[in-house]
């Protein structure tokens, strides 16, 4: 930081009680969007309902000029700028969010992709057509000035247009984009997918990993690592092995980031196992949630504040921001101040990496590089052994996050506990049927409108009663891979429940949402740090996937099915009889 700005920032840190402890490095270099006195004063003034609003505002002039003007204003008011003058400064030096983006209609969008014809129910088919049309609404392209004057934007320049989630999320997000791409490929839009892949690959080449999202304040954290899986889906759809060959080294580079920066070693039964966790060793409040993080830190002793902020960022890196998953074992398990994300080894993260290692082995095999294929095959085998030894619970029939501090599994229910089933990272063919029993034992099949994110009601958005599209996919596709007709039938009925919830809400509100409240007959979700958002990228993608997989059976008018054990036989019998008749 330049001298005077650094002095001001240090004074503010002292005011927050942080000057007496070793501080972690700031999240990025920008003294406007990531750290510093200007960010602190504006965010703590709470001019906007959502802290993300300010850090998404483009600058009206060069950042050096803006900082100089701010320092002069601060000096004129003895570093205590009156609220009205500070608001005037923001209005003069910043523009409204979204100015750096322009609407974009994908060039490969077409009226009637083939998968629509697989949907028997006329209402669902018409709805799928409307969701297909939403790609045009969610398409964005960066204006040239983001490239020519990058320091005036928090947006990271990306050459290729992309699909955003929607609502407050005006940029792309890492793990959201996997389910978006699944939907785009069903919509026969591989060129759009290729462009989005290229954006992610360039980010890895530049920063060594894919950031949480496309803003500079997200740079020091990632999200669930699905880039290799995105490539697999694209290559399977297009057979573009030349593209794979060109970028296989970049995929390896991203996996190196997780192996080197997010690794953890666990001893069990006399052996040591390498697994991964979410861990963001950078200080200060999250810029996009600055005032909330600062106020939460005020409830803790001074020496605990940097650790809190690092754990909040790790929670954001997990994609589950926030959840009771990360509050286990804290002094107050219902308070976000107890968050300890980095102290847990997550099932889903390691399942995703296991699948990535399997795919990399396959990629290198088809490209003729046997030594690298063997390397990733061995890495997968080692991770599979670690999953089985450290995270799997034979008695309960599921995997569980491992608590590093207490040396035990967190046995609360989360759909992520079945992520290895979805990822194909298991060796026992009976695992899917054991997983079904796990769902029955936890009465998850009693929920008629979707699979809950947890059974704990904490007020966090990744807890009960919210249900999220990607988690439905984890469970449904995981069960569907079973060879058991009964388990496959439950997968279908879960898909029917989710489709009905999404369809009913869309019929009433003409919108798709990022999450749904399944405790209230199916409504837009709530809780967390911001209002529920419309759009919505990954929700649309999952719906299109389910309509593609089960379109000949799904019905718009079929009420959600109660799938308690005593009802399973009744639910299953008609479909078995129908199958026999058709056979």
Compact summary:
The chain has 583 residues and is mostly helical.
The structural class is: mainly alpha
Let me know the number of strands: 13
Report the oligomer: single chain
Radius of gyration: 24 Å
Percent in strands: 5-15%
Count of helical regions: 21
What structural keywords apply?
583 residues, disordered C terminus, 3-stranded antiparallel beta sheet, disordered N terminus, mainly alpha
Folded structure, characterized:
The protein is mainly alpha-helical and about 575 residues long. Among the domains are: about 5-45 and about 60-95 and about 280-315, no CATH class; about 430-583, no CATH class. Helix content is about 50%, strand content about 5%. It is built from 21 helices and 13 strands. The chain has helices at about 5-15, 35-45, 50-55, 65-75, 85-95, 120-140, 145-150, 175-185, 190-205, 225-240, 240-260, 290-295, 305-315, 345-365, 370-390, 420-425, 430-440, 470-480, 485-510, 535-550, 565-580; strands spanning about 100-105, 140, 160-165, 265-270, 270-275, 345, 390-395, 400, 400-405, 410, 465, 515, 525. The strands form five sheets. It has a three-stranded antiparallel beta sheet with strand order 1-2-3. The longest helix has 25 residues, at about 485-510. The chain is globular. The model is unreliable at about 1-20 and about 570-583 (pLDDT under 50).
């Amino acid at each position: 930081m330049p001298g005077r700005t650094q002095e001001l920032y240090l004074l503010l840190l002292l005011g927050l009680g942080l000057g007496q402890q070793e501080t972690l490095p700031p999240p990025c270099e920008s003294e406007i969007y990531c750290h510093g006195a200007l960010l602190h004063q504006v965010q703590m003034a709470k001019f906007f309902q959502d802290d993300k609003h300010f850090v998404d505002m483009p600058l009206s002039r060069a950042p050096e000029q803006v900082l100089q003007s701010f320092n002069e204003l601060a000096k004129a008011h003895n570093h205590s700028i009156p609220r009205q003058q500070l608001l005037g400064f923001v209005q003069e030096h910043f523009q409204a969010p979204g100015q750096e983006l322009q609407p974009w209609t994908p060039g490969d969008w077409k009226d009637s992709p083939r998968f629509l014809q697989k949907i028997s129910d006329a209402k669902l088919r018409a709805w799928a057509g409307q969701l297909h049309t939403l790609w045009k609404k969610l398409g964005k392209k960066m204006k040239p000035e983001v490239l020519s004057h990058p320091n005036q934007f928090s947006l990271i320049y990306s050459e290729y247009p992309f699909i955003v989630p929607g609502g407050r999320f005006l940029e792309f997000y890492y793990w959201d984009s996997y389910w978006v791409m699944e939907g785009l490929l069903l919509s026969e839009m591989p060129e759009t997918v290729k462009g989005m892949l290229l954006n992610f690959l360039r980010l890895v080449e530049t920063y060594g990993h894919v950031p949480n999202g496309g803003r500079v304040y997200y740079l020091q954290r990632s999200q669930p690592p699905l880039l290799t899986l995105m490539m697999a889906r694209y290559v399977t759809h297009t057979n573009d092995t030349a593209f794979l060959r060109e970028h296989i080294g970049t995929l390896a580079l991203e996996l190196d980031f997780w192996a080197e920066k997010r690794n953890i070693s666990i001893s069990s039964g006399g052996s040591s196992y390498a697994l991964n966790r979410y861990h963001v060793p950078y200080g200060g409040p999250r810029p996009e949630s600055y005032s909330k993080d600062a106020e939460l830190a005020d409830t803790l002793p001074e020496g605990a504040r940097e650790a809190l902020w690092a754990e909040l960022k790790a929670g954001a890196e997990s994609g589950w921001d926030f959840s009771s998953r990360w509050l286990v074992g804290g002094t107050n398990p219902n308070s976000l101040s107890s968050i300890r994300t980095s102290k847990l080894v997550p099932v889903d993260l390691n399942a995703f990496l296991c699948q990535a290692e399997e795919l990399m082995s396959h990629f290198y095999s088809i490209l003729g590089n046997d030594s690298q294929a063997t390397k990733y095959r061995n890495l997968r085998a080692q991770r599979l052994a670690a999953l089985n030894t450290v995270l799997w619970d034979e008695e309960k029939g599921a995997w569980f996050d491992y608590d590093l501090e207490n040396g035990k599994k967190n046995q609360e229910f989360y759909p992520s506990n079945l992520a290895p089933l979805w990822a194909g990272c298991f060796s026992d063919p009976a695992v899917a049927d054991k997983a079904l029993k796990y769902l029955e034992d936890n009465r998850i099949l009693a929920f008629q409108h979707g699979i809950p994110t947890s059974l704990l009601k904490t007020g966090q958005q990744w807890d009960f009663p919210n249900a999220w599209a990607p988690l439905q996919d984890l469970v449904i596709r995981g069960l569907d891979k079973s060879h058991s007709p009964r388990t496959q039938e439950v997968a279908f009925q879960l898909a029917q429940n989710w489709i009905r919830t999404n369809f009913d809400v869309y019929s009433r509100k003409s919108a798709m949402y990022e999450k749904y409240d399944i405790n209230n007959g199916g409504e837009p979700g709530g809780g967390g740090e911001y209002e529920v958002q419309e759009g919505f990228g990954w929700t649309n993608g999952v719906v299109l996937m389910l309509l593609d997989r089960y379109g000949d059976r799904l019905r718009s008018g079929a009420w959600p099915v109660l799938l308690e054990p005593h009802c399973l036989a009744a639910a299953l019998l008609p479909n078995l009889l129908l199958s026999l008749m058709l056979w």
